[in-house]
Design a protein that fits this description.
It comes from gut metagenome. The protein has one domain. It has three helices and five strands.
Length: 83
Amino acid sequence: RSGEEMGLKPNGFTEPTLIKDYPIRNRKVLLHVRRRRYLDADNRNVILNQYPLNADGTKVSVEFGSFFKDSDGQASIDSSVIS
């Protein structure tokens, strides 16, 4: 560990972020991601790790995202197949 990391104290976790992924083996996939929070040596500043959730250079256009939704803005996947 670097000297900067030595003064950090664990301070719980962030609220979970829900990531809905493509179905695997006909089951829906929901990932609940929580990040560890740390306090600095003075117990004043909260420090969080940043984890990019997409690869560098990848983007999803609005048109591509809307392809997966019906006219009501809901996912167009049949939930009876997934559950």
